[in-house]
């Protein structure tokens, strides 16, 4: 098997990690290159103990039920961000999934 190198931004790394599929990159590419800013964006929540993004529990639940993510989650506002305080915002998170 011939391995090639790749360059990545933060988004694919974050979502593959959330879905526990970072091994796909390891199996596909010999090396993944990221700039220091991208690396910091990927590990910042771990380093600074930021709250877990809202979609992580949903993706973990889906994986537990035998489903895999089919794309990026979509966050839909249920009330108008221009009319309510940030702490009063209501959202719905939709994650496209399919059965394995």
Summarize the structure.
With 100 residues, the chain is α+β, with helices and mostly antiparallel strands. It is built from 4 helices and 6 strands.
For the largest sheet, list the strands in their spatial order.
1-2
The parts where pLDDT drops under 50 for at least 5 residues are none
Give the helix tally.
4
Let me know the average pLDDT. 78
The first-to-last residue Cα distance is: 26 Å
Largest sheet: 2 strands, parallel
Portion in strands: 15-25%
Class by SSE composition: alpha+beta
SSE layout:
Layout: E1 4-7, H1 10-18, H2 23-28, E2 29-33, H3 36-47, H4 55-64, E3 67-69, E4 74-77, E5 91-94, E6 97-99
Parallel strand pairs: 1-2
Antiparallel strand pairs: 3-6, 4-5
Describe this entry's structure for a reader.
The strands form three sheets. A two-stranded parallel sheet has the order 1-2. A two-stranded antiparallel sheet has the order 3-6. It has a two-stranded antiparallel ribbon with strand order 4-5. The radius of gyration is 16 Å and the shape is globular. Helix content is 37%, strand content 23%. It folds into two domains: 50 residues, no CATH class; 50 residues, no CATH class. The two termini are 26 Å apart. The protein is an alpha+beta fold and 100 residues long. The protein is built from four helices and six strands, in the order βααβααββββ.
């Amino acid at each position: 098997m011939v391995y090639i190198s790749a360059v990545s931004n933060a988004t694919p790394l974050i979502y593959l990690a959330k879905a526990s599929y970072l091994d796909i990159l390891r199996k596909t590419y010999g090396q993944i290159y990221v700039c220091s800013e991208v690396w910091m964006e990927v590990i910042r929540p771990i380093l600074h103990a930021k709250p877990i993004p809202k979609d992580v529990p949903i993706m973990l639940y889906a994986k537990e039920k035998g489903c895999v993510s089919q794309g990026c989650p979509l966050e839909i506002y249920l009330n108008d961000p221009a009319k309510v305080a940030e702490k009063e915002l209501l959202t719905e998170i939709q994650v496209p999934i399919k059965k394995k």
